[in-house]
What does this fold into?
Amino acid sequence: MLILGLSSFKHDAAAALLDNGAVRAAIENDKLVRSRTTGLPENAIRFCLDTAGARWDDLDAIAVASRPLRGWARRSLLRARLSPFSPLGAAYHEANELGMVARELQQVRTLRRNSGKSNILHFEHHLCHAANAFYLSPYDRALILTLDREGDGRSGMLAVGEENRVRMLRTIPFPHSLAWIYEQVTELLGFLPHHDEHKTQWLSLEGEPVFQNVFLDMLRNPKNHLPRLNYSYVNRELAGRLAFSAKFYESVGIRDRKASLSDDQRRALASSLQAAITEVIASLLAYFRERTGIENVCLGGGLFLNTLLVASLERRLGLNQVFVPPAPGDSGNAVGAAALAWHQTMRHPRTSTASHAYWGPACSRSEIKDVLDNCKARYSLQTTEERKLDAALQLLESGKIVGWFQGAAEFGPRALGNRSLLASPWAPYVRENLNDFIKHREWFRPFAVAVPEEDCERYFEASHLCYSMNSLATARHANVLPEGFLLPGNRVRLHVVRQQSNPLFWRLLKRFGERAPAPLLVNTSFNLFGEPLVVKPRDAVRSYFCSGIDALVVDNFLLSKAATNHVFAATRAS
It folds into this structure.
């Protein structure tokens, strides 16, 4: 039985295909198109159908993670409450809102026309977040919390997952949104809102939370522990958006909303916000854990892309008692919607949980060769897996940055060893080279390291969330990695690699550890600045030639720029 799941059509559009309850294929549309897209994820849908060798007629159900009319009704009611004295402004924004809803309904009509199906299942946005978190988790029973900016007029949900059912407990209406405040502070700090929130997260490590109480007063509701926006800290501007009020700027020591912030102010604001949302969420979860008697917790929604937040919650709630899916944001709702149709609507029991997220496109060796030949690229073919590993190890040991393109692409925002840039953490200037010549990132953003599962305990204390890089680990010794890779408190971004999930990357790590101080490699996403993770061979070749990547291993093909002679000579001789 095939079920096609689709996220909402506003942003981060994605498609997922479930085959008898198991994820057969899933991909974000942006990765295939190579830019930000909205609307029906046609490329992602086509990939899912092609992967299963299916047509529209073969689908048993289509599930969409959106109820646009309900969302419009909730947002319109909010607008009427917030701006009773701005009828013209409210009418203007209501017209825009109606236009957005009309476009979304048109996308549904297009989907119905293409598929020939009149019965398309629609689920609440946050219910799909909850399903994505719970059905992919190892728990039979769990407390579920979802938080994001806004979806279908809501900013969050508390639910209970039991076997194959998700039961809603509470909803959090917009604008009582922790994620929305995080977005507004991101803009205040000079970053791009709804895009650069991860920068605010890492900048928070550089400051002290001196304004934590301000954000707690803005966001915390002591009566029921649910987030609550204190309207005295915001202005209600023409019903279109909320902006920080004079009270907020006075409370955080900013004289003028247009004034440029000093570096110390930016660090303090980021740190204070991070500490405040952690406190609000931790107290909320502690309260409802005690009230429901459920220890295990599943987290979904875009706010839980914040690995610092997740790691802090793990320390408070207990290691291995928290689960975050590989794609907790809106793209993951494609999986959540399909899972709801399979389990909740069709009442199928849960069987096994997913052990990996390699659900994206994979290419045959002949397809890769065609791309390389078309690009007039100089390459060598490693005829065996051993020779491929030997060539990669030779490059890594000599301090090179290697593009590693193998197997099926990852679903979600993390590079999990199939579309990764790899380097030795002991190579000279490795962080500077990655930042200056490839990633063009801010100096305060850390890089992740990968370790084989069997060696993890020797070097780190880590939870199962590190398999998908959704949390942080703690180094057992401060000298396990060179300076610059450890965060305050000896924390580290860590990718734990299972042999059964990714045997090739696991073998590379083990082999590297035989000749290095430890079986650890820097693992960062294979993409250029501002672009999605590479998916197809042509994406990888373009990124390789347009950046400071030293070498590229794509399937069994090796491309190398600097000092190529000895590499090609070695591979030909072998």
Observations:
- The longest helix spans residues 263-292.
- The longest strand covers residues 141-151.
- The radius of gyration is 24 Å.
- The chain has three domains: 2-126, 137-324, 365-573.
